[in-house]
Write a structure and sequence with these properties.
The chain has about 400 residues and is of the alpha+beta class. The chain is built from 7 helices and 10 strands. The longest helix has about 160 residues. The N and C termini lie far apart (about 210 Å).
Length: about 400
């Protein structure tokens, strides 16, 4: 629309003419939105709010009197507040490139002042401290012109041909070189050890390969030998089995022949011997029975003779009492005992003769002795007889 102006996002629109701005500023400040501007009666200008850059390359003298060339980069911009925009607009609106020139000069002066109070060692080792001190000392001065600094970077510090920094770094360089040499020696040693280890592994692998090959060859030879011996071994086993079968057959034939011999010779001989033994036993038994029968017949005849002679024997025994003085102590019982004793003597004589049947002469003698011993009496019984 005609007369309506809108500033860019990184710009501030300054409207001059008409009433004054805030705080008695000679213009009005508009940011972030548009504004209707009456043509001819109002004038509009734009101030950049974008980031700007200033470079500084300044020769500074240190506390030790050593000249250093310091190069730095400053990043700055116009502040976002109205006061900063008004201050910057009044100073740089007609020539905004002067902001970088003026900022570089301001920082160069502060660099010279701060470096003059520090040694080379401090500047080299404490660059961040140097940048912070420069920012702190320049902040107030930069705010007066409506600028704020975002960062300050020390790019390089050079002592020219004096060689101070080089001399200062020599021990460190020597240490670094020494460390580099040590690291190189360690790397070489590690490489040599790795090479030796690789050689050992290769030799071990070769040895294992040779062992495996030898074992494989030995296994192949063994299998071939077994294969070559398989035929003869099988034949030998077969012959051995044939011999074993023949031996078993011969043993069976021998057992059969032995059984035949036992059946044909031993068994008949044993049967004949048994028959002869039985016949002999029968004959012996027959003779024994005949002898017993003969003996029994003789005893029967003798017993009969003795029985026939028993009355005479008793008579002879009783005749021995004819001249004896007999006292009968218990009457009729005593007389019965005397008669019984005489008969008992006769029976004793008869029994003695039977036991000595094989000696007739002895039997007669014993009988005679028994007959003559008529004075003997049996043990006392119920009666009592006394012979004198």
């Amino acid at each position: 629309m005609f007369g309506y102006r809108v500033p860019a996002p990184d710009e501030a629109m300054l409207i001059s003419g008409g009433r004054r701005g805030q705080g008695g500023a000679p213009f009005r400040v508009v940011t972030g939105h548009g504004k209707f501007v009456l043509p001819v009666f109002r004038k509009t200008r734009f101030l950049t709010l974008a980031m700007c850059e200033a470079e500084v390359a300044e020769k500074c003298v240190t506390k030790q009197g050593i000249v250093l060339t310091v190069r730095a980069v400053i990043a700055f911009k116009v502040g976002n507040d109205t006061e900063s925009i008004v201050n910057a607009g009044q100073r740089f609106l007609s020539d905004q490139d002067q902001m970088s020139v003026l900022t570089g000069r301001i920082f160069a002066g502060h660099l010279r002042a701060i470096i003059g109070s520090m040694t080379v060692e401090e500047i080299i080792t404490e660059r961040q401290k140097l940048a912070i001190e420069v920012l702190d000392t320049s902040k107030t001065e930069m705010a007066k012109i409506g600028l704020i600094v975002d960062s300050l970077q020390i790019q390089s510090i050079d002592d020219g041909d004096t060689g101070y920094i080089a001399a200062m770094s020599a021990p460190h360089k020597a240490a670094i070189q020494r460390q580099a040499q040590i690291a190189q020696a360690q790397a070489a040693q590690a490489a040599a050890e790795a090479e030796q280890a690789a050689a050992r592994k290769q030799a071990e692998y070769a040895r294992q390969t040779a062992v495996v090959q030898a074992e494989y060859s030995a296994e192949v030879d063994r299998v071939q030998a077994q294969s070559a011996q398989a035929g003869p071994l099988a034949e030998a086993h077969a012959q051995q089995e044939v011999l074993a079968a023949r031996t078993e057959l011969a043993q069976r034939a021998a057992d059969l022949r032995q059984q035949q011999l036992v059946a044909e010779i031993v068994k008949p001989a044993e049967a004949e011997a048994e028959r002869i033994r039985v016949l002999a036993l029968a004959e012996a038994e027959r003779m024994r029975i005949q002898a017993e029968a003969a003996a029994s017949h003789g005893r029967v005849a003798l017993d009969r003779m003795l029985i026939d002679q028993l009355p005479q024997i008793v008579k002879e025994a009783a005749s021995g009492l004819s001249g004896a003085n007999v006292n009968v102590l218990n009457g009729a019982d005593g007389l019965g005992e005397i008669a019984a004793g005489l008969v008992g003597q006769g029976l004793t004589i008869l029994d003695s003769v039977r036991r000595n049947l094989g000696s007739p002469e002895g039997d007669v003698e014993k009988a005679e002795k028994a007959q003559k011993s008529g004075g003997q009496r049996p043990a006392d019984g119920g009666g009592r007889v006394e012979i004198r």
